[in-house]
Every structure is written in structure tokens, then in C-alpha cells.
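User: Need the bound-state model for zinc ion:
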Amino acid sequence: MNLNSRLNAIVLKIKKMGYSLTPQRLEIIKIISESKNHPSATDVYNKLKKLYPMVSLNTVYKNLSMLASLHEVKEIKIMQNSVHYDGDISLHGHAICEKCGKIIDVEIDEFDFKKKLIENYHIRNYGVEFYGLCDYCHKEESPAEIASHL
Ligand SMILES: [Zn+2]
Ligand SMILES: [Zn+2]
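Assistant: Bound-state model below.
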């Protein structure tokens, strides 16, 4: 599914659910559907502010949770109650670095995933999270180990 059809699908759903489509809301949907780096509400807010300087962070929060409740955006809870958002709702998991908060997409085998589920079960939401250290933070934490490899 390309980005445009993704954007259209979200817009259609919003209208179908009876939500109004304000210019700010449309821009939030655009930002999140085009993002590849799992932004936080603040990241989305900082982008949106450039076009709509009067918008509040709370508006961004409300819109992102609305999109999450419609299952059009995925919430990824990382450390210290910080929430990030993913506009890519295709089947995948996340590896989250507990030190720097970096989020990496993890491929999930769709067939393997589905065959283990109860037959005729209708999934509406899921979360597959792995917590650990990214390669960079891991090297930072164990410099001695790296030196021994040189
Ligand atoms: Zn890290
Ligand atoms: Zn992702």
C-alpha cells in the first residue's frame, strides 16, 4: 500500500466514524502516515507547528489517541511512560533500546504469526516489543569487550 492510499484510507475511516476533518487533523494524519521513525507526540507537534503555529501539543495528543483508537496508528510504549506512534500498521514488531529510546522495526512472519492464533479470531490490535540495547548503546556499555576484539 503506498502512502497516498494509506492517507486516503485513514481519511475515509475518520469521515465514516463521524469525525470532522480539520486542516490540522489532516496534517497530523499526513505527518504520521509519512513518518518512518516512530515519532513521539512532541515530534509530530514540532513538525505541525511550522504550518500551524497556534496548535497545541494537547491537540496533537488527542488526535493521535483518536487515530490509535481507530487502529490506524499504533502506540508504542517505551521507557518512562513515553509513548511513540507508528503510522505503519502493517504486521511488524519493535525492538526498543532501553538506553537511548531508539525504535527499530522487527519483521514478523505473517504465516507463522497467524497459524498460532485461534481460528476465526479477529485481531484488532497487537503489540510485539523487544526491550534491550541497540548496537551503539551496547558498545558504549562494554568498551572493554570491544577493545578485546580489536
Ligand atoms: Zn541505544
Ligand atoms: Zn514500526
